[in-house]
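Model it.
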Amino acid sequence: MKLSDSATAQWRAMVEAHQAQSQRLRDPEWRPHRDFAPPSVDSFRADRGRADDTCIVDVLRGLLPPNGTFVDVGAGAGRFAIPLARSAATVFAIEPSETMRAALAADAAEAGITNVQLIPSQWEAITGVSGDLVLASHVVYSLLDIEPFVRRLDTAARAWAAVLAFEKPPLSWLSGFWPRVHDEVRLPAPHLPQVIDVVTQLGFGPPLVDLIEVEPFDLGPPEIAREKLRRRLYVAPNSPADRRLSTAMDELLENHGGVLVPRTDETVRVGLARWTPRHG
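Modeled.
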């Protein structure tokens, strides 16, 4: 099958298989959180001193014209919106999560930043927002219908449209937990190679890609780490799967001064796939 016939179809098939596995293996008592829990919000804040964040911001700043407009789709708690606001005229921060928006607003106020406009909506529901640089950061993995999302990025961008995604399947550094907890290998969600294929299929690419190595991710203190892993593995407290999770944590995590990190030598990279807009 040709790329032009398969990229969006493969994307949908991967998302459907990934989500079906999650539903099939989750504990019956497991319930999704309505919004991000506070420990997770910190991973999406600005100015954390991470070298990978600095590298990504430097690349983005180089793409943004002086006094330009930056549209941050899935802005989170301001990881990129706040540092880019220091050199942009205007930042539109698109973020549906109330918890994330509250953290972004508080951090922007503390930093004296006043040129960030928060938009509490999904990207697919927004009209009339455009910018010189439009970025979708780590928000595409669960989208069933990727084509209109990417087309909207292209339409909204004046100089550059970009998607930031993991080079390997998201949360791949935690993949060892799935066979131990659920006795199955985790099926991959779409990630950077599929982003490149879709952008190319739609006539916007092949995109330019900047690969940036990511620092190791910590899961926090043991109880916070356990709760994060329960959410990501669809495990309810005190279930048989939760007991298997405890054993897996002992095997797969290391304690660094009270903070648990995955025991792995895997190199994790993100890719910034970017293109000049074609507008449909």
